[in-house]
Amino acid sequence: MADSNPSILSHVSLGTNDFDAAKKFYDAVLPEVGIKEIMSHPGAVAYGKMFPEFWIQKPIDGNPASVGNGTHVAFLFPTKAEVDKFFEVAVKNGAKGDGKPGAREEYGDKYYGCFVRDLDGHKVEGMYYDMSDVPTS
User: Fold this and answer.
1) What distance in Å separates the CA atoms of residue 63 and residue 125, rounded to the nearest whole number?
2) Neighbours of 61 (CB within 10 A)
3) What are the phi and psi torsion angles at 96 (to 5°)?
4) How far apart are CA 29 and CA 50, in angstroms?
């Protein structure tokens, strides 16, 4: 796995103050874009395509979860249409739009993305990057 996985991260975790509501939200949103629940245990659930890469959980220390200023999680999608769908489904399930889907010239002409705030206020991005002319080796 380590030799073939192009990711530099193992996983990302976001804290929640209402685990049941957060799980319901991500259970509704993520499968719409090909991401499924991989594993769970009391107070925590992990999502991914093959591996537990994105966790939602109650903070381990028992203190309230808080939102990091300048922190966000970005999901990479293979098409612009999936970015649009992510935004639509997230907002339909209670997220607040924080940047509608579209090009962002400041990120380059190959970038297309959107931003939402989940039920706990975490900034979550859906993005597509046109890699059609990126060398494969």
Assistant:
1) 26
2) 7
3) -100, 130
4) 17
Alpha-carbon span 40 to 91, nearest angstrom: 25
Q: Quote the tokens at residue 28.
A: 């509704």
Query: What pTM value is reported for the model?
Result: 0.88
Tell me which residue of 33, 19, 29, 133 sits closest to 78, measured CA to CA: 33
What is the C-alpha separation between 30 and 42, in angstroms, rounded?
20
What is the distance between the alpha carbons of residues 94 and 72, in angstroms, rounded to a whole number?
18
108: alpha, beta or left? (left if phi > 0; alpha if psi -120 to 50)? left
Positive or negative: CA dihedral 129, 133, 136, 137? negative
CA distances from 45 to 6, 19, 57 (A): 23, 9, 6
Three-state secondary-structure class, residue 76 = strand
Confidence grade of residue 1 (pLDDT, cut at 50, 70, 90): very low
Q: Which residues of 87-122 are buried (b: 16+ CB within 10 A; e: fewer)?
A: bebbbebebeeeeebeeeeeeeeeebbbbbbbbbeb
State the chain's mean pLDDT as an integer.
92
Three-state SS for 12? strand
